C-alpha cells in the first residue's frame, strides 16, 4: 500500500470529533434548564448567572491541564478521560442529590454540589477543546489536515444544534411542574449517551504517531503511519518525526516567544470579535433590537443553520485557499456586520436588515475564525512544545471567552452602538494581526513547523 488511506483518516477524525460534539453539547445543554434551576435552587440574578456559567471555570482548568495530560497520558487517553468527565458530569448534574442529599431538598450545599458537577463537565470541555484538534492534526496527512481539524468546529456547532432540539423534545407538551421536577434532569442525562459512545469508540482508533515516537515506540508509530499514508510516505514521515524530536526540551519558549504570542492572540481574537456574545445572547440581542421573543427564538435557529452551512464552506476551502486568506476574508465580513449593526442601533433602525447583518457576521466567523483558529492552534507549534503550547493558547481562549461574555450585559446597557462597534474594531485589528504575524501553514507537515519558527 503506497497511497494515503483517506477513508481510514476520515473514520479516525469522525471518532475524535465526537469530543467536539460533546464540547458543543455540554456548553449548550444548560440553556434548556435555566428556568428549572432558578425554581429548584430558588436563585436569580447574579447567583443564577454564575450557576449557568460555572462550567466555564472548568473549561479554563481543562485548558490549563490539557498539555500535561496530552504529554503524560497521551492524546487518545486524554480524550478517554474527557469522555468519562462528560459522562459523570451529565449524570451528577441531573442528579445533584446523589449520595449526600434528599430528593426535593434545596440548600446552599446542594447548589455548591451542582456547580462542582458542572465544573467537572467544563474540565472535560477544556480537555476536549485542546486535545481533539491536536489528535486530529497529528493523525491527518498535511494535504487534508485543515479539513479534518475543521470537522471539529462543525461538530461543536452541530452538538449545540442537537441539544437545542433534544431539550425541546424533552419539554414539548409537558407541564411546567414536570419540567421543574424531572424534565431538566433528563436534559442533562441525555449527554450520557454520546459520552459513552465517545469513550468506547476511542478504543478503535490508534494513538498518534507523534506521541508514540515521543514515548519511545517508533515501530508502532510506523505501523500507524503505514495505515494512514502508505509504506513509502510513512518511512519519510517517521524519519521527519524522529528528527524533529531529537532535541527534546521541557521549555515551552524553546522556539522563542513569537510562536506562543501568535497562538495566544489567535485564541484571544477568536473571542474578542464577539462571537460568543452573539451565540449566548442571540435571543436577547434580537429582543433588544425590537423583535418579539418568539421571533427571536426562530431567528436564533436560523443562525444555527447558517453556522453549520458556513462551517462546511471552511471545511471545503481551507486546504485549497489556505488559512490566512480565509481568516482575513472572515475578519472583513465580521467588521462590516458589526459596524452595520452598531450604526443601525445608533439610528434606532429595526428590521430585517438587522437580521441580515447578524447573519453576515456569523457566516463570516463560521467560514474563518471558528474552524481556522483551531486548525492553526493544532498545527503551528513544533512537536516538542505542542502539548504545553496548545494548553496555554486554549486556556487564554477560555479566559477571553469568560471576559467577553461576562462584560457584554454591562457594555450593552452602557451603549449598544459602542458595544457592537467595539467588536467591529477588534475584527479590523485581527486583519492586521493575521497579515503581519500569522504564517501560512497550508500543505506544510507538522515537522516543518520547527524549521519555520527557527527562522
Helix percent band: over 70%
Q: What general outline do the C-alpha atoms trace?
A: globular
Counting DSSP H or I runs of 4 or more residues, the number of helices is 22
Distance linking N and C termini: 36 Å
Please indicate the percent range of residues in DSSP E strands (runs of 2 or more).
Answer: under 5%
Which segments are poorly predicted (pLDDT under 50) over 5 or more consecutive residues?
Answer: none
Structural class from helices and strands?
Answer: mainly alpha
Topology:
Elements: H1 6-16, H2 18-29, H3 34-41, H4 45-52, H5 55-72, H6 75-94, H7 108-139, H8 145-171, H9 176-189, H10 192-201, H11 209-214, H12 218-229, H13 231-244, H14 257-272, H15 275-288, H16 293-321, H17 323-346, H18 352-366, H19 369-379, H20 386-414, H21 416-437, H22 448-454
In short:
With 455 residues, the chain is mainly α.
Describe the protein in words.
Helix 6 (75-94) packs antiparallel against helix 7, helix 7 (108-139) packs across helix 19 (369-379) and helix 14 runs antiparallel to helix 19 (369-379). It is built from 22 helices and no strands. Helix content is 79%, strand content 0%. The radius of gyration is 22 Å and the shape is globular. The mean pLDDT is 85. By secondary structure, it is mostly helical.
Amino acid at each position: 500500500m503506497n497511497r494515503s488511506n483517506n477513508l481510514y483518516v476520515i473514520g479516525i477524525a469522525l471518532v475524535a470529533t465526537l469530543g467536539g460534539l460533546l464540547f458543543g453539547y455540554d456548553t449548550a445543554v444548560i440553556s434548556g434548564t435555566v428556568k428549572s434551576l432558578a425554581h429548584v435552587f430558588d436563585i436569580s440574578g447574579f447567583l443564577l448567572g454564575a450557576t449557568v456559567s460555572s462550567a466555564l471555570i472548568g473549561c479554563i482548568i481543562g485548558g490549563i491541564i490539557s498539555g500535561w495530560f496530552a504529554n503524560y497520558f497521551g492524546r487518545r487517553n486524554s480524550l478517554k478521560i474527557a469522555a468519562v468527565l462528560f459522562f459523570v458530569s451529565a449524570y451528577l448534574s441531573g442528579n445533584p442529590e446523589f449520595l449526600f442529599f434528599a430528593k426535593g431538598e434545596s440548600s446552599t450545599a446542594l447548589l455548591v454540589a451542582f456547580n462542582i458537577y458542572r465544573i467537572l463537565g467544563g474540565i472535560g470541555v477544556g480537555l476536549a477543546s485542546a486535545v481533539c484538534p491536536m489528535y486530529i492534526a497529528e493523525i491527518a496527512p498535511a494535504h487534508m489536515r485543515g479539513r479534518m481539524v475543521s470537522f471539529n468546529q462543525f461538530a461543536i456547532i452541530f452538538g449545540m444544534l442537537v441539544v437545542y432540539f433534544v431539550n425541546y423534545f424533552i419539554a414539548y407538551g409537558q407541564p411546567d411542574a414536570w419540567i421543574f421536577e424531572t424534565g431538566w434532569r433528563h436534559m442533562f442525562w441525555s449527554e450520557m449517551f454520546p459520552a459513552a459512545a465517545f469513550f468506547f469508540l476511542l478504543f478503535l482508533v490508534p494513538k498518534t504517531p507523534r506521541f508514540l515516537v515521543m514515548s519511545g515506540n517508533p515501530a508502532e508509530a510506523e505501523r500507524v503511519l503505514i495505515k494512514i499514508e502508505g509504506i513509502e510516505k510513512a518511512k519519510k514521515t517517521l524519519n521527519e518525526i524522529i528528527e524533529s524530536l531529537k532535541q527534546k526540551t521541557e521549555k515551552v519558549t524553546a522556539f522563542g516567544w513569537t510562536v506562543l504570542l501568535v497562538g495566544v492572540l489567535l485564541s484571544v481574537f477568536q473571542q474578542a470579535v464577539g462571537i460568543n456574545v452573539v451565540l449566548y445572547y442571540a435571543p436577547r440581542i434580537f429582543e433588544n433590537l425590537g423583535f418579539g421573543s418568539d421571533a427571536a427564538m426562530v431567528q436564533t435557529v436560523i443562525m444555527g443553520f447558517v453556522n453549520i452551512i458556513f462551517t462546511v464552506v471552511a471545511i471545503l476551502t481551507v486546504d485549497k485557499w489556505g488559512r490566512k486568506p480565509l481568516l482575513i476574508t472572515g475578519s472583513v465580513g465580521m467588521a462590516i456586520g458589526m459596524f452595520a449593526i452598531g450604526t443601525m442601533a445608533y439610528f434606532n433602525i429595526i428590521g430585517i436588515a438587522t437580521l441580515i447583518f447578524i447573519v453576515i457576521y456569523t457566516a463570516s466567523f463560521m467560514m474563518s475564525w471558528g474552524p481556522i483558529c483551531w486548525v492553526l492552534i493544532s498545527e503551528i507549534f513544533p512537536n516538542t512544545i505542542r502539548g504545553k503550547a496548545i494548553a496555554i493558547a486554549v486556556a487564554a481562549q477560555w479566559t477571553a471567552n469568560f471576559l467577553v461574555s461576562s462584560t457584554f450585559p454591562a457594555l450593552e446597557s452602557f451603549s449598544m452602538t459602542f458595544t457592537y462597534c467595539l467588536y467591529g474594531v477588534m475584527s479590523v485589528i485581527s486583519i492586521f494581526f493575521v497579515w503581519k504575524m500569522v504564517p501560512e501553514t497550508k500543505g506544510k507537515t507538522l515537522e516543518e513547523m520547527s524549521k519555520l519558527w527557527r527562522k
